[in-house]
Design brief:
Blueprint: E1 2-7, H1 11-20, E2 28-34, H2 37-47, E3 51-55, H3 63-71, E4 80-85, H4 90-98, E5 104-106, H5 111-140, H6 145-148, H7 160-175, H8 182-189, H9 193-204, H10 208-223, H11 231-237, H12 243-254, H13 258-264
Parallel strand pairs: 1-2, 1-3, 3-4, 4-5
């Protein structure tokens, strides 16, 4: 549920807002209230709400001053704001926009307009929370098998069997977008597939197939950062014709599905 603080100096209207609106139906919970600016600052700092519904004209400090002061404090995340006012004045609205407030409702409140505003904010809040959760999961998976994957590089002066491995790796890097087998790579190098499999594992720590899989998913991670590419397009670009199989492999190596990973990048 979204945590809500209501700031309104008129006691009767404050009670009406707290007790008459169907907050639970809107997935909201009133966690605090205040009737003046200084009290509002205290309750917002203490309760750390997701949403604040505030009047503009208040004793002590105005609603706009409250918003400005809270924006300068280290609340993380900052709350969303709904301003309610009996004054349809351009200067109020302009100042609210400057402070990043998008929700400005006039008294008397229209229940349908309030419901629409709350539902939109809740949808955005829910999406943001999900994204934060996924980003945390991604950070926790920083040491996943994909993050530990290191591409193989040949050092000059190494023996010939190292060069075979280097050439096989280069073949993967050049052709990972299509079907590849160790047999094809061995034939290209004019050595047996058994010999290539053995030295490849010794040098890279991966089988030929494992290295190909890790390399493909590493490329997929980069491609999924492009908001214009769809998941099935990314799968195809890294050599997977079956999107479902691609998603299974991606989740196993990264710790989340391609869709979840793409969501973590949508604000970047």
């Amino acid at each position: 549920m979204m945590r809500l603080v209501i700031v309104e100096d008129e006691q009767a209207f404050l009670n009406e807002l707290i007790f008459s609106e169907p907050w639970e139906d809107w997935d909201c919970m009133v966690v605090g209230s205040a009737q003046d600016g200084l009290g509002a600052l205290g309750v917002i700092e203490e309760k750390k709400p997701d949403l604040v519904l505030t009047d503009i004209r208040l004793p002590g400090k105005s609603g706009l001053q409250i918003i400005e002061e809270i924006s300068q404090r280290s609340l993380d995340p900052q709350p969303e704001w709904i301003i309610i006012s009996g004054y349809d004045e351009f200067e109020y609205a302009r100042t609210a926009l400057r402070l990043g407030v998008r929700n400005y409702l006039l008294k008397p409140l229209d229940d349908d307009e309030l419901a629409t505003t709350i539902q939109r904010i809740r949808s955005e809040w829910k999406t943001r929370r999900e994204r934060e959760h996924l980003e945390a999961a991604l950070r926790e998976n920083h040491h996943s098998t994909l993050m530990l994957f290191q591409e193989y590089h040949l050092n000059q002066g190494q023996e010939s069997h190292h060069r075979y491995v280097s050439q096989a790796v280069a073949h993967i890097h050049d052709c990972y977008q299509r079907d590849l087998t160790v047999e094809e790579a061995a034939q290209k190098l004019r050595i047996s597939s058994g010999y290539l499999s053995r030295i490849f594992k010794q040098e890279t720590g991966y089988s030929f197939t494992e290295y190909l899989m890790y390399y493909r998913i590493k490329r997929a991670v980069d491609l999924l950062k492009d908001p214009d590419l769809r998941i099935y397009e990314v799968a195809d670009l890294v050599g997977y014709v079956d999107q479902r199989y691609f998603s299974q492999i991606f989740k196993r190596l990264v710790g989340m599905t391609p869709r979840e990973f793409k969501m973590t990048r949508s604000d970047h």
